[in-house]
Each structure stands twice: as C-alpha cells, then as structure tokens.
Specification:
Distance between the termini: 23 Å
Strand content: 35-45%
Shape: globular
Number of domains: 1
CATH topology: 2,3-Dihydroxybiphenyl 1,2-Dioxygenase, domain 1
CATH superfamily: 2,3-Dihydroxybiphenyl 1,2-Dioxygenase, domain 1
Protein name: VOC family protein
Structural class: alpha/beta
Amino acid sequence: MKLNHLNLTVTDVNAAREFLEKYFELQTRHTRGNSFAVLSDKDGLVLTLMKGTEAEYPKTFHIGFIQESEEQVNAINRRMKEDGFDVGEPQRAHGWTFYVKAPGGFTVEVLC
C-alpha cells in the first residue's frame, strides 16, 4: 500500500498550481474556478489544492519532491532563485536538500 493522495489548503490555488507544474512536472487534471485544483504526476500521486482564507501548517510541515541526483536539486534551486524565490543553497542534511515557501502558504523540500 502506498500513500498517493494529499490535499493542501492554500491561499492561492492558481499560484500554487503553476508553481507545482513549473518546478515539479505535476499536471493539472481538473480545476473549479480559483477554489480547487487536482494535479497528478506520472507515478500516480494525486495532489488536490483547496482555497482557504489562510493556510496555517505546523512549522515543520512540508511536502517533498525527491530528485534523482544532486545536479537536479541544484538545477531546481538555481531556477527558483532566478525566478525570485528566497531559497538558500542546498545543504547536506538527511540528503542533498533545500526548502522553499511555495505560493499559497506551504513549504516544499527538494532533495536527493
């Protein structure tokens, strides 16, 4: 059995959806105006985004996108910096990793 569905409450569904499409190759399968979106990936993940007036998650809450190599982590980090996101350099922790606050109010970890 594997976890394959996650719902996030976000403050901006469209911005969050575009971010996830651009950097993590998720594809939008369905939207309902600006209040709901269904995204998926080639491995069967279904990620839904629901509009909320605020998105408050515990400080350590995040979702992660595991990459195949450090070079991929570095490339995503570089693209995010070029696009104006406030991201630090990847660091060696439990893997080669960095975190970014995504549009909509949730945190994403990129690692390998």
